[in-house]
């Protein structure tokens, strides 16, 4: 069986002109091959109604799409082999979700296709109708039942029936009314008597509809293991169905109507259901729990929900992408450049790479590795539905349906590498890494309590010590200025700078004194350099050096030899004084720490 790219090269699929035009417009993205684009496929669907599966066990995955048609008619289940329509089946009502699952262990191992539509789940085996599951009926409101019974016996007229049903709906019981009553209230007054006379003799039934559906592995985690169906309903319930007998195994109750489902784990061992509801909250349910334990309150209504490891990533209507833990802690929030249309999990098992794909209404699909944007895909139209997985014989295929009814197929290049950093300019990734903060010990807690109880006293002691430190520093600075113990002159009339270096290993050293006039225009005259040292240790060739006129800005070097006359291997400090002739107070002073002299070798 040929791959999608090979089929396109042979001319199968869309017209050649459309394909060449689409390929040339996407040469900029080097990570994806543009395999197919047909703007006239007339496919109007969402991500929940798209699936990829090997329906015949031959290793060639087919594309399964539940087409919404016009919304009132032309709803069909379409199966594509490559880019060619293989089969199609008519669906009676609007589809809400499509899933493929293994319902038995018979050979050959071929999955069944489940289509959720209204209150029913249509199961197809080998692309043929196999079974229809109906949701359990709900209890009818007793007041509503009594009203229709009275209308049946002509005890009340149509006007009274309308007023009583409207009062029930105003009391907040709209979600508990049957479809018959809701349709009755939607009619014009002149059509109500005909509708009531036609249906009042029929038994009153209250049926809910399916809003979302996914699968859950039953006892094994292999790809071809038996799976259970997990469905969310308009009546705020979650049902887990047995894949063989299609009976309800578990029922869970939610505070609101579920719209997105994500399930992990095994039914027979442990599983967790993460549900996004219409009230803008996300709930987490575990095995054995009848009601949600954790709740996440979003900033706006959710548009898509995907799970990455132990975290939940949700796209909202306020153009944000948010990440939470299953316990409700928010990890990060990203502001997107446009509104979110749909989301899909990119699980590229060949490279072990997982990412979140977000379709925006600016004709772009962003690929996020955690919070970092690693790739951007440009599309010809706004994407409303997408599915990533194995299509044909290609593992990294991305199938997208557009707002205008088009079909786009892209293939991830096998040598593509997604860098684990943000492709957008900004601060480095290391700036966003969390610090490894150790856990609080008992000593830390006790110290915190002590600081809290003695805060005033500790603050006063700190201020006292700080003032004392500042006082000691000021006194030392004034003393240094008064005694000219600094290498730079503090006198504005004598702006000098002194530095000294010692060269040699002993017993003879060369002492170099560098003197510089730091004034802007005034030269320095009548200066003298003298040394103070221990005469038992050292002997200087020149103990006094006359300094010529110092031009401002120039560095003057003065050298003398120092002879170490002691054999005790000790060192001392030599002080350098810069004096003005006729004054005993030095202008500046420098301390030179002499190195230990090497022993004199006699040959």
TrEMBL record:
Task: Report whether Membrane shows up as a keyword of the record.
Answer: yes
Task: Please name the gene that encodes this protein.
Answer: LOC109474832
Q: How does it assemble?
A: Part of BBSome complex, that contains BBS1, BBS2, BBS4, BBS5, BBS7, BBS8/TTC8, BBS9 and BBIP10. Interacts with the C-terminus of RAB3IP. Interacts with CCDC28B and ALDOB. Interacts with PKD1.
* Molecular function GO labels: patched binding; smoothened binding
Record's protein name: BBSome complex member BBS1
The alphabetized UniProt keywords are: Acetylation, Cell membrane, Cell projection, Cilium, Cilium biogenesis/degradation, Cytoplasm, Cytoskeleton, Membrane, Olfaction, Protein transport, Sensory transduction, Transport, Vision
Q: Which GO terms describe its biological process?
A: non-motile cilium assembly; protein localization to cilium; protein transport; retina homeostasis; sensory perception of smell; visual perception
The main location is: membrane
Region ranges (Disordered): 1-21
Location in the cell: Cell projection, Cilium membrane; Cytoplasm, Cytoskeleton, Microtubule organizing center, Centrosome, Centriolar satellite
Sorted alphabetically, the Gene Ontology cellular component annotations on this record are: axoneme; BBSome; centriolar satellite; ciliary membrane
As recorded in UniProt, coiled-coil segments are: none
**Residues annotated as domain Bardet-Biedl syndrome 1 protein GAE:** 496-599
Q: Where is the Bardet-Biedl syndrome 1 N-terminal domain?
A: 32-286
């Amino acid at each position: 069986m040929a791959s999608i790219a090979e089929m396109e090269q042979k001319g199968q699929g869309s017209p050649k002109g459309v394909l060449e035009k689409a390929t040339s417009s996407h040469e900029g993205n080097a990570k994806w091959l543009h395999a197919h684009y047909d703007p006239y496929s007339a496919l109007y669907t969402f991500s929940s109604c798209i699936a990829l599966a090997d329906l015949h066990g031959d290793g060639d995955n087919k594309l399964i799409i539940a087409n919404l048609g016009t919304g009132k008619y032309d709803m069909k289940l379409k199966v594509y082999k490559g880019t060619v329509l293989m089969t199609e089946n008519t669906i009676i009502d609007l589809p809400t979700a499509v899933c493929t699952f293994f319902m038995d262990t018979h050979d050959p191992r071929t999955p069944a296709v489940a289509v959720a539509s209204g209150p029913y789940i249509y199961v197809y085996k080998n692309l043929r109708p196999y079974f229809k599951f109906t949701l359990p009926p709900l209890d009818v409101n007793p007041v509503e039942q009594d009203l229709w019974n009275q209308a049946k016996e002509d005890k009340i007229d149509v006007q009274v029936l309308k007023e009583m049903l409207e009062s029930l709906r105003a009391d907040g019981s709209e979600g508990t009314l049957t479809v018959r009553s809701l349709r009755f209230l939607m009619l014009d007054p002149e059509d109500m008597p005909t509708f009531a006379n036609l249906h009042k003799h029929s038994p009153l039934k209250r049926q809910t509809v399916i809003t979302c559906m996914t699968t859950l592995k039953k006892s094994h985690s292999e790809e071809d293991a038996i799976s259970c169906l997990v469905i969310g309903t308009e009546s705020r319930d979650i049902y887990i169905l047995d894949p063989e007998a299609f009976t309800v195994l578990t029922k869970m109750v939610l505070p609101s109507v579920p719209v997105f489902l994500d399930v992990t784990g095994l039914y027979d061992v442990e599983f967790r259901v993460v549900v996004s509801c219409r009230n803008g909250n996300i709930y987490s349910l575990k095995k054995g729990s009848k009601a949600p334990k954790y709740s996440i309150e979003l900033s706006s209504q959710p548009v898509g929900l995907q799970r990455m490891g132990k975290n939940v990533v949700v796209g909202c209507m306020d153009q944000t992408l948010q990440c939470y833990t299953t316990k409700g802690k928010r990890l990060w929030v990203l502001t997107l450049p446009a509104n979110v249309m749909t989301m899909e999990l990119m699980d590229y098992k060949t490279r072990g790479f997982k990412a979140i794909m977000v379709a925006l209404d600016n004709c772009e699909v962003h690929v996020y590795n955690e919070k970092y944007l690693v790739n951007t895909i440009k599309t010809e139209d706004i994407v409303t539905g997408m599915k990533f997985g194995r299509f044909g014989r290609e593992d990294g295929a991305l199938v997208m349906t557009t707002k205008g009814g088009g079909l786009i197929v892209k293939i991830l290049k096998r040598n593509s590498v997604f860098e684990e950093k943000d492709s957008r300019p900004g601060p480095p990734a290391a700036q966003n890494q969390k610090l490894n903060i150790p856990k609080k010990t008992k000593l830390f807690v006790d110290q915190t309590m002590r600081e809290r109880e003695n805060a005033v006293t500790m603050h006063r002691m700190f201020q006292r010590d700080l003032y004392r430190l500042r006082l000691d520093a000021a006194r030392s600075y004034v003393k240094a200025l008064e005694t000219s113990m600094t290498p730079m002159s503090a006198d504005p009339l004598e702006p000098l700078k002194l530095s000294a270096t010692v060269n040699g290993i002993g017993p003879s050293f060369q002492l170099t004194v560098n003197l510089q006039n730091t004034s802007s225009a005034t030269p320095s005259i009548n200066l003298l350099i003298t040394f103070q040292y221990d005469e038992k240790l050292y002997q200087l060739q020149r103990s006094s050096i006359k300094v010529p006129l110092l031009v401002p800005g120039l560095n003057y070097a003065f050298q003398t030899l120092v002879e170490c006359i002691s054999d005790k291997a000790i060192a001392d400090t030599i002080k350098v004084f810069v004096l003005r002739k006729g004054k005993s107070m030095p202008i500046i002073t420098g301390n030179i720490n002499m190195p230990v002299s090497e022993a004199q070798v006699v040959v």
